[in-house]
Amino acid sequence: MGVYECTHTPIPTATRKHASYTCEVQRLHQMIPTVLPKLVVEPGSAVLPKLVVEPGSANLEREKPTKSRHERKEITMRVAIVGGGYGGVYLSKALEARNVDVVLVERNERFFHKIGGGRAFIESGFEEKVFLEFDELLQRRDSCVLIGEARALNVNTKTLSVWCGREADEKRDINFDAIVFAMGVRHTFGQLPDEGLMLDDLLATCKREQDRLAMVDVIVVVGGGALGIETSSQIADTYKDKTVHLLHSRGALMSGAGSKELGDLVKTKLEALGVNVHLGCGRIEKEDVQRQYPGSLVLMATGCRMSDSSRSLLDPRWINDETSEIRVGPSLRVENAPDFVYAIGDIAATGDYKQARWAHRHAEVVAANICGGNKIYQPLRSNPWFIRPLSYILCWWVRARVDSTLVIALKLGLHEHVMEFGGILFSDYFTRRKMEKDTGIAHVRKSALSLPPN
Ligand SMILES: Cc1cc2nc3c(=O)[nH]c(=O)nc-3n(C[C@H](O)[C@H](O)[C@H](O)COP(=O)(O)OP(=O)(O)OC[C@H]3O[C@@H](n4cnc5c(N)ncnc54)[C@H](O)[C@@H]3O)c2cc1C
């Protein structure tokens, strides 16, 4: 890409220790320009102008007013976050709210609104909406978003090595006081390649997937979980002339959610959209499906796993190979790692369903613990007591009462939704009013990235 220019000298660990308190802040500020790389934007480049804000630079439009003596007695520390998805973004905000400096390392040039990723891979034009700017995310003058791929970590020297630039040929070392892994996991559809991409390549990736779909008459989606359901319904709704099959190993859709009512309702809605649902297919291999449906496009939507790049960054002792996740304790510290190493979001073995909302909750716990708290993360394992009575009160909107504790909001095609919250399956009347037609983009623009509506 050739648009980055950086000079970099890491702060020696000993110096950073002394620079921890405000009496040393000025000295720290003098050093930081050598640590934080400078982003130089070439004329005509699509690179975002305010990704890296240098102390003392003319970019400091949001410089804070001079603090009172009392306020100045804050501890300054720097947290490196690997991964600028939902978890990384939520955590950056939670840390900044506690006056902590953040270096958010994200390998893609833009935030990827993964929740709308499936739709961006299917519906032409939608890809323009799902890659969002990081410009407004960080407010502290010593925080920055660094676009590059984290590829090496030294916990002894507290150094993270990040490769930047289109060719990933510029290495920068980031020093940190604490580090958080928020690299997410790879899904089987609606998934970007396992490498960093600039905006033009991100858009081209979506277009390529859209073209693959446009060229075939028959599409077979394998996996009747949330991803397979959303994918097949979206394709059927977008391409009314194509034949769409959804194959699921078990006897009911959304079998992981353990709610027959939910599975039955989803099946009815999928069939109304024209999806051919096949249940009880047992273990399904891609090659077998290709033989059974010659000439079709087979899309696997059968779970997720840690990416190879994440695996190579991490100490193997931190990884649970069975679940392909990072082992964490109740404080979300990584097990077998020093106590300044944390993991959040999909990549952390918290026992949660893989959903952005849990990454949000993890971020709050980790932000508190980094700042000296002792917060314990407790995944929701039972419904609160008021849920059953509430379901009676809401009877106009409640379709059925089920036992699941999951929070599920499925988008079916372009206009249909199904929502289950706290064991209550909501009727269409409620769901259509609650769910956003834009797959949550307006919400994430405003609440997570502080961007204006587009
Ligand atoms: C099609 C689809 C629909 C979904 N719908 C919903 C939904 O409706 N509701 C819901 O709650 N959840 C939904 N999910 C799940 C949700 O997207 C994930 O739970 C969520 O993205 C997890 O957030 P995360 O921050 O852990 O990881 P991610 O959002 O995956 O972010 C990880 C980030 O880390 C970056 N990264 C990885 N490795 C490196 C590295 N070495 N260096 C730098 N950066 C790196 C990646 O580029 C990525 O941006 C959906 C998922 C898919 C695929």
Automatic annotation (TrEMBL):
Alphabetically list the UniProt keywords.
Answer: FAD, Flavoprotein, Oxidoreductase
**Annotated Gene Ontology cellular component terms:** cytoplasm
Which GO molecular function terms does the record list? electron-transferring-flavoprotein dehydrogenase activity; flavin adenine dinucleotide binding
What SUPFAM superfamilies has UniProt attached to this entry? FAD/NAD(P)-binding domain (SSF51905)
Q: Which Pfam families match?
A: Pyr_redox_2
InterPro entries cross-referenced by the UniProt entry: FAD/NAD-bd_sf, FAD/NAD-binding_dom
Q: What domain of life is recorded for the organism?
A: Eukaryota
Which residue numbers delimit the FAD/NAD(P)-binding domain?
Answer: 77-363
Matching entries from Gene3D superfamilies are given as: 3.50.50.100
Which PANTHER family does this chain map to?
APOPTOSIS-INDUCING FACTOR 1 (PTHR43735), FERROPTOSIS SUPPRESSOR PROTEIN 1 (PTHR43735:SF3)
Similarity field? Belongs to the FAD-dependent oxidoreductase family.
Q: What is this protein called?
A: Apoptosis-inducing factor 2
To which species is this protein native?
Answer: Hondaea fermentalgiana
Lineage, uppermost ranks: Eukaryota, Sar, Stramenopiles, Bigyra, Labyrinthulomycetes
